Structure formats: structure tokens, C-alpha cells
Fold this protein.
Amino acid sequence: MSYENTVIKERLASLRSVMEREGIDFYMMPTSDFHNSEYSADFFKVREYFCGFDGSNGTLVVSKDFAGMWTDGRYFIQAENQMKGTGVELFKMMNPGVPTIEEYLFANMKEGQCLGFDGRVISTSIGESLEKKLSAKKVTLKIDKDLAEEVWTDRPALPLHDMYVLSDELCGKSFAQKLSEVRDAMKKFGTGAYLLSKLDDICWLTNLRGNDVECNPVALAYAYITMDKFSLFVQEGEVTSEVKEYCDKVGIELRDYHSVMEFVGDSSFDSDVLYDKRNTNFLTFKTLLKKAQEGKVALKNEKDPTELMKAQKNKTEIANIREVYLKDSAKLTEFIYWVKKNVGKIPMTEYSAAMKLDSMRAELPGYIELSFPTISAYNANAAMAHYEATEDNCAEVKAEGMLLVDSGATYMGGTTDVTRTIVVGAISDEIKRHYTATVAGMLSLANATFLEGCTGRNVDILARGPLWDMGIDYNHGTGHGIGYILNVHEGPQNIRWRFAPGANEAPLLEGMIVSDEPGVYIQDSHGIRIENILEVVTDKENEYGKFLKFAHLTYAPIDLEAIDTKYMKPEHVKLLNEYHKMVYDRVAPLIEDAEVKAWLKEATREVQ
Amino acid sequence: MSYENTVIKERLASLRSVMEREGIDFYMMPTSDFHNSEYSADFFKVREYFCGFDGSNGTLVVSKDFAGMWTDGRYFIQAENQMKGTGVELFKMMNPGVPTIEEYLFANMKEGQCLGFDGRVISTSIGESLEKKLSAKKVTLKIDKDLAEEVWTDRPALPLHDMYVLSDELCGKSFAQKLSEVRDAMKKFGTGAYLLSKLDDICWLTNLRGNDVECNPVALAYAYITMDKFSLFVQEGEVTSEVKEYCDKVGIELRDYHSVMEFVGDSSFDSDVLYDKRNTNFLTFKTLLKKAQEGKVALKNEKDPTELMKAQKNKTEIANIREVYLKDSAKLTEFIYWVKKNVGKIPMTEYSAAMKLDSMRAELPGYIELSFPTISAYNANAAMAHYEATEDNCAEVKAEGMLLVDSGATYMGGTTDVTRTIVVGAISDEIKRHYTATVAGMLSLANATFLEGCTGRNVDILARGPLWDMGIDYNHGTGHGIGYILNVHEGPQNIRWRFAPGANEAPLLEGMIVSDEPGVYIQDSHGIRIENILEVVTDKENEYGKFLKFAHLTYAPIDLEAIDTKYMKPEHVKLLNEYHKMVYDRVAPLIEDAEVKAWLKEATREVQ
């Protein structure tokens, strides 16, 4: 007899009875918080509660006699295992013949039926698309109920952590200055009101920080901005006396986080309202829209103007970031030395190595938290795009092959990110060829000079070129923006060779921070990624325009044991030697241990 | 007393009296034929007739008491001179404070007035934009009258030259095969009818050629395509018995060119009609629109599907193109030798040098015509983007500096384009630095490997990089597509680093031909451009996708007298030597003169 997961089946039965009472025929549960954050807190893990699958991406759809869960290729095996005996059907996204959720609903919902979901965890674009498609079948939407509320009795609470204030000195710009720039942008768009839903943008604007999202130093919040008022919706329990005092002083009106929908629903707007469809959840959008229509004003969907302001770091931010990256690079250097010295001699797993690095970073002054969960992947594990070693499930690191470590932290002074692939023993000639080309690509991009107006698409080929030349590609972007004491992934800039139609393709501008991370991933064999973080600086301005270039922020040795210069153009050898000289000159003074320093000298030696 | 141009004034007076009779308050005369061709025949030079200015770009607007002519920076001085004493005001386009034509009309036309123009010489996009803007002032448009018709009594006739047939063997694909592919595209768009206005697309599709546009081997024509009929509108006088016989055989219904508007106006459409807004003139569009609306069918604005089919050359075309480029390269090589040998010894001007090259090309078998007027520009003249030497106005070429020659021809087997900048005497070190970087850029781009899906924007930086590295840019695209026994400029692909929003950014695909022409232009000093033509070929296909690369079609020596390898990366020196070896190996066998062959050996020697 086959195994039956009665726990999940009982939960689904309870959900179905609530659905019936509410007149909801299909209920959809995606993976998101109210702000489309990169990580969702336990409170939001409704899909996991009702089907058992705990991967980072998945949407559960339930009707009276059906339950289906959609996830992507990373999770097919895991989802099958975790949902065994639940009766929930697995839909393998992107596989041939597998319908999308929208297609499934369109085919299976009957005319006049009702689709329910919590409109706060669905983006406006997905919500609008569903609404449009299903309107042809006269399906109604019910989006103001979170049905889990009553079924999931032992649900974890919404994250509730103290907020804190960053000084104007640390931020380089006061809230008042930033607000004035935001209001200028609102005027430019012809809007007198602005609802901002994006957590890191709100933190950047207010110079406040929080701790409600894993690895992102942000607080759950909304901001509503008019020409004479700034209202911040946060949980009362997060407002310390320091935060309260600061808000009073700078003119931030504090309102309860939970009252935002009521506020929007009760407001009457006397001017057009600015919002960003990408960052506003569907319930907020629909509530706004209704009120706007009543007041005969329009909603203006524009890119949050805060996004670009936040991305172009000011002088203070840049100075602090440079310093933080040097210290972080020195720690990483010490860690690389530790791995190489100890591998094969002490017990070492992917997980224990990551813990070691995390604890070394935590010693640095101003350390706040990791900027993302450290990726530590040994040999073939490194070929898996989203591999995550856990204490219970991780490989032993032996004195052969390579260990890929992608890691970073947020400090009072900046947020870091860096990847090194560390040689821990014998490697093949093929690996050296791949490693050398990856390094050549990383250094080529970092060496680019380009006219202002270029986007990541213009320069991406410099990183991919050495790999493309040998018929290899990596199936991810080359670079992403990085926040200042904020999220490790931020827009609007990024470096890719192709963009989805209509995607945000922003020019690279002075003061932006961007990663440069080519890689090679050979299934069941090895994975290589080398990631430096770059700062966009001005080269010169003349009759042709403004020439920009990159400056390295990361200064950590690149493993010469995996470099064979016979696979490198002379130009790239030169770049590598120049980079290594800078690494030694800048990082050695930060390293106290003479043994490590001597090793670094050797690790950054000139190669021919 | 100032000079009065009574000829122009009398012409304008006659025009104004016709305008008054027709109830037209403002009359606009741009520079175009009915098909937005690159060159306009004398018949279309209405603007020149009414104001005296004969540059390649200009629009004249006339009202009862005003006449203004808009042109761009290339022509400010020339226009001022040529319009002296005419009373026509010069509007310097893009200069601060100078209104666009649309802005001028909007500001100066009175409510209810009438704007007239020949709707056949205005593109649909310009027409629609004017219509929209001026509708706010209740201005009406009269677009079905060419007022010059009655005033310009000695007007040249519309071009009328024999058409001819290319064999299926030469084209690699029959009309029937091409038509079947076009009909498949029509089905894909859901359209049962298709009006094609673009001359080179019509010629490509029918395997016919003509001689109605300077340097473009095309006939004035429209094609109207349904699922069971193909109608070709051409001037009866152009249809030779050979063409007639061919058309009868392959099922092309011949109709009179001048009846096309009547045909469209009388047709009743029973399915949606495909057209391309970029290539359809405003009168045709309005006539189509009216009939479509009557028949309750829609006009579908799509990119002409013929454009992409024409751009991806078939195997026969590619084979012929390769051969033609070799022969053309050998001729250019002989010309370079002739220049270098004779400069300072025989009288030589920019113009006479161009004539020499043109006559050498005309000796080649299958020569049809130049693919564009040869650009021959000496020293500082080469820094001017649109410099054109004429017999009466050209510089003497002396034994110092450089001569830039950009030239090409159409042969029975392909259309060529190539630029070389030839050293004719002493040059400065700065010029060598610029020249060397230009060559490095050209060779770098030609050496690219890239994944299918890349557009010209992805690879442009490879050509510009060496110049950007030294803070120099060129203010033009890096590359354009080229036709097969057709126009030297064709889409959809091109290589640029930025595109206007909404511009056509087409992927580079196997079989496409594209130019690679970086340059340096230093005002009042020198101009350098090196242009090779490249073919897109498949490198390999594997799990990452299809990798493409370029193969040179042009094999002519690059002047080593202007190369200083100390300004080059070792990689670029290697590319240069590899290229020059190919030049010698492929071109020397085509050169009979032993002296030239010996010189070529030296001119393509390996450099260190």
C-alpha cells in the first residue's frame, strides 16, 4: 500500500471547507511576501504548509477535487519526494506539454466560478494578466482574503524586529535631501502623491533599517508621499524610542503597517498617484485604482524614482564601500589560506567551511549579517546553479578538486558579495582551461572603457567572450547591482547579453556598483565562478561624451594553481598580473599573520 | 543692393497661385521618392526646384507670405549660399531654439487651415505624426496633389529604364519558392493580402531587377500579394519582352505602376491586409486604410517579412558573393598599388582617383554599376562625414598624408562595399595611433564568436573598444547589411551600440552579410575608416545553443605604413598577420602583374 500523508490531506480538507464557505472555487498560493522580497519569512510559507514542499519557488493551486503545485527544474525531485502521499499533483514548469497556471485555470475553471488568492502576495503584473485571461470565462476574483489565516492555527508571527537609524554621516545624504529629490521626480511625472512599496527603497530614502527579511536589512513597510507629508507604515512593535525620536525630528509620520490598505481605501486623492507596477502588490493596486477612479485622478505606473537614486552611490557611500570591500577581501583571503592549509588535514565539509567563513566575517567591525546564505559547493556540486549545502546534507571537502565559495555580508559601511573557486588538490587540464577563460572574462569586463549610455548588454560579451570562443556559455546574467547596507541584489542596472522584451535595461552610470561573475558549469564534473564587484567611475569627458570605466572593489587572490597562461591571451596575463599586484598592495597591510602574508605574496606572484 | 534670385521667386509665385486655387495654406516638399529610396531621381527634386538648394536632405515649406527650408548641419553653409536672394529662410535643424517643421506648423498655422503635400513622398510615420499634432488645431490635410506637376513645366520624366530577369540559378531560389515563403508569413500574421512597397524587397522576391534609382538596381514598383494572385505594378515602358515572358511563365500579373493608387482605392478587401508602416507612403496608407475600414478588415502593420528572408543569403548567393568579393578585392588592391606608385608623379585629385577606381571595377565581368558614389577624401576632407568630391570641387592628392576611399559596385553575383585609408606620404605618430586602433577594432569584431540571439548591440564594443580605450568615438554605426545584386544598405540587422527606442534591433543570423567599419575623424586634420564586409557563419551548435562567428568577405591589404604595433595588443597583431596571410593567399592568384603581386607580398608581410 502506498504511503499517505494524512497531515497535509487534513490541512487541505480544512482549506477546502473554508473555500466553500467563502464561495471560492480555486485558491492559489504563490511564494512571496507583501513586497515581493527575495526571501519570504516563515509567516508567508503558506504553500509549504499546505503541500509539504519547501523549495524557494512554487505555487499551489487547490480546488474542491484538485491540488496542483507548479515549480521549476531545480526542484522536480525534491518536490516529488516532499509531496509523496499528499495527493498534490506536480506540474513541471517549462516542460513540454505542461500548462502554465494561467493556462490550467483557463482550461479548468467553469464560467462564473471564483478564483481566490491573497492579493498582497501577487504582483500587479501577474494579477492583471490572470484577470484579463480569465475575464473571457467570466471568472471572478476574490483577492482580499488570506484563507490560511484561519486554517493554519500555529502559524509563525509576521517578522517583528527593532528598526534602527543610520546617521546622515554614514548615509552621505539626509532623509530631507533625498525626499526633496523624490518630490522633484514626482513633479516631473506630474503626480502629487506616491505610494512606495519596495522595502529597500523605503530604507534607502528614510535612512532607516530593519531586520524583517532574511539577509536584507529592511523593515516591512510602505511609504506614502505627498508634497507636504511623508507617512511611513511600519509595525508599531518595531519602532524603538530612537526611531521614534528620529522620525519626529525629520518629519516622518508613523502609521501602523497593518492600516495601510485601510488608509489607501479611505483616502481621497486630488492628484495623480505615482506607483510602480513591478513593486506594488495586486491588492494595493486594486485598492488604489478604485480610489483613484472615484477621485477622477489617474494612477501613473512609473519606475520607482528611488531605484536609480539608490543605485548611484554618493561620495560617502563610495568611500565606505571601498573600505568595507578591502576588509572583506582580507577576510576572504585569510579564509582561502585556511582552506588550503587545512584541507585533507582536519575534518572539513562544504557546510563547516561556510560556517568558518561566516564566523570570520562576523569578527569584522560593523558586521550586521550575511548578505545572502553562503554558497559552498565542492567539485560537481558547484555545477548546480542553486546548490545549498546544509549541516545534514553536504559533501566532505577532500584534498582534490575545487571548492566554490560565493559569499558576502552587510556591514555598517556597505554590503559585499564575492566568489572564489579554490583549488584544494589535483585538477584536470580541462578545468584549468575553463578556469583560465573564466578569469580572462572577468578581467576583460573589469577593464572595459565605454561611453555613458551603454547598458549591461553592450559590455556583457567582454565577460563571456573567452568562454564563447571555446563554445561554452553560462546560463545566468554576468552582473547585478548591489545595495549600500542593503540588499545584495538591486536594480536598475545589470549585465546580461539579452533581455526579455520590455525588461528594464538601464544604462551604467557613475557611482553604480555591479558584479562581474562569469562561470563554467559542467554537469557531474565541476563548477567555476569568479566574481569581483566593480564600481563605475568616470574615465574622461570630451567632445565624444563621457567615458566610463570600472574600478575593482574586490581584492582577493585568484587561484594561480588553476591558471595556465597558455590558454590566455597576453593581454589577459597582463591584466591578471596588474590585478594581483593591487591585491597584494592593498590587502597585505590588513593581514597581521606573517604566514598568511607570505602566502599572499606567493599567491599574487607575477605569471608569464 | 542685395542680389535677388528672380528665377526662384517666380517659381514660388506660381506655386502660391496654385496653392490658393487649391485651398492649400501651407505646402510641404521633402526629399524622397514614392518608396523612401536612398537616392531620389531628378523627377523628385521638387524642393531643389523651388528653393535652389540641392543637398541630399532638406524640406521646403511654403505659405502665402513665408518660405522656409529645413536641413541638417552638413548643409548649413551650402544652403545659405544656394538660397541667397530667394527669400527662403534657412532653418538649421537641431540647432538650439530652431523649431522642427511640426513645431513650426503647429505654431503658425491658424485653426481650420489646410496643409498640403504629395502624400506619396511622405512616410506613414511622419504623416501620422503631423496629422495627430495638427488635429489639435483643426488643420486639414490635402495629400493627393503634387502641385509641382503644373508649375514645373520642364520637369524631368520619372525614371524609365528596362527591367531585366535574373536566372533562378543566379538567385539560388525561384520566385515561386520565395512567394510560397511570403504566403506562409502572411498566414502567420493572419492576413490574406499584402501590399509591398519596398523596391529592393520586390526585386528580391520576383528575381527581377531595374535601373530607376541611382546605384540601386531596382525598378519603381509595388507588389500586391494574395493567396492566389501576385500583381506587380511597374511602368509599362520598362517591361521588355523577356520580362513579359518571364512574368507570364511564373504567374506574375503585370499592372501599370501609375494605377496602383486607383487599384488600392477600388479594391474591396475580404481579409486583413499586411503592410509595413516604415516602407508604405502616407497616401497609400490612407487609401488602404479607407478601403480596409469599408470592408471591415484591419490593416496589420508588421515588418515586411521579405526583409529577413532577403537578408539571410542562400547558399548560391553566398557562393557568388564570396567570389565577387575576391575579384573586387583584387581590383581594389591594384588600385591601392596604382595610387601609391603614382602619387606625386602624375596629376591626381580625389575625383580622378575615384574615376580611376570606378573604371577599373567596370572592367570586371558582370559589372552592373557602382553600389554608391565612390567617396574619395584626402587628409582633412576625410574627417567630414559626408564629403563628396566632384570634378570641379576636389582636392589634389599630394605625396603626403592619406587618401580615404570608400567604394563598391554591384555585379552579377553580388554587391560590394569596402573602405581603405591609403598612406600616400608622411603621416604623424598620432595618425598611426588612430589608424592602428581602428584596425584593431575592425579585426576584433571580425574575430568575435557569439551565441545566436545576439544583435549588433552585443558586439559593437569589440569594434569601438580600442578607440574608446583612448577616449575616441566615431559618430556612426559600425555596420549595415548589404544586398545581393541589390542595395548596398539593407536591413534588418545592423551593428550599433545604441538604438533609438523602438528601433529595429534584429539578431545576427547565419547567412547575413554585414559591414565592419570603425573610424576616427579629427576635424581639420584627418579621417580614417577601415571597412571589411563580413559573413555570419555557424561556428558550432551544442548544449549551450548555436554559436556564430564572422568570416571575412573582403581581402585587401591594410596599410602597414600606418600601423605601429607598439599601439596594438599582441592579440591584434596576431589577427592582423593572420588576415594579411589570407589576403595574399586568396588575392595574389587573381593578380596578373608581377610587380603588383610582389608589392602585395610586401604589403601583407608579417609584422612583429
